[in-house]
């Protein structure tokens, strides 16, 4: 008993410290407290009302809301419908009790599975002259929500992110789409006239379109010319009735960041029209295209000749291998290059390096085993050593080493002629089931014995 009382006495100073900290925070102005609460999930912000009378109504002045149905979704106390009803009642209470007359909502984030009519009513209450950011993720539900038209004429909206079972517009068309302040747009939705939406965004800078999950078929899509960043993912579809090929126009002179992922489906094709991108900083390409339609992929590479970082994923290099004859563009500013290969081709890599004049970092990854025999049809590389290898290349990484003759020859070429190399990393753990420990030791010894052109080069193995 004495020990328990002594323990309680020891806890008292700590309790006083906590209480003092709470009192200090409570003494802050409401505007500062709301700023703090805006970084928390809304359910946590609302629960601060139980701390004291001082906190009871603070959350009602919030202008930033982050509402997620996860705490209700995983509750085991009620059946599914009752859990949904509890969440809907929670959101209704928040929107009804907040000080809407004095504080307009600036940022609203909602993740839920609620019915379309319910969400539409919530959005009607949220839309206002001060709304700057709207995030809506509609988890799977049988009905698709159609968004209120007021969203598409919101003058202050800067960021719009829509995901899940969502339809953009009422009816086939809307009379007006105009978002003059919109800078960021991310879409992964069930259905909608995306081209119409893009046409009403005169200041758009960041666009993220993911059409994979729902397989939207859009016959023609023109990217806004104001874009600085574009992330575009889609399966290569066409209209089954008309056999119409999908057209994509990327006439974006200010584009700096490009992530393009296109997967060709059977008997489908896509035409992509591009322009020169003088401000390109990063380009990531994963393009799986049929042999007869690879011409636009090659044109795209030439349009990206000013980029500083280029990542060619496996499907893209497969397109280049399939091309009848292809000469790489001159990359005068490229300092970082990532290449995924289905098979090693020393000629392919050397041709690429000859056109990367200031390359500092090279990453080569053996993508996967492929039963299809691929042969590189490009020109025979020049006999002289690429300028970047002797003067600029500082880092070389090779992942998926399988100890083939071509691999050994290319790695030896870089090690012997790389005069400014600092690090070379070889990873054969990616296909570790190919090597017994004794084989690994022999491979390491063989590679370590290669003479190095750089006296400071460190050879690392994974």
Automatic annotation (TrEMBL):
Q: What SUPFAM superfamilies does the record point to?
A: F-box domain, RNI-like
Q: Which domain of life is it from?
A: Eukaryota
For this protein, the record's SMART domains field holds:
FBD, FBOX
Residues of the F-box domain? 22-68
What InterPro entries is this protein classified in?
Answer: F-box-like_dom_sf, F-box_AtFBL13-like, F-box_dom, FBD, FBL13/AtMIF1-like, LRR_dom_sf, LRR_FXL15/At3g58940/PEG3-like
| Family matches, as PANTHER family | EMB|CAB62440.1-RELATED, F-BOX/RNI SUPERFAMILY PROTEIN-RELATED
Q: What is this protein called?
A: F-box domain-containing protein
Q: What species was this sequence derived from?
A: Stylosanthes scabra
Q: What is the lineage of its organism?
A: Eukaryota, Viridiplantae, Streptophyta, Embryophyta, Tracheophyta
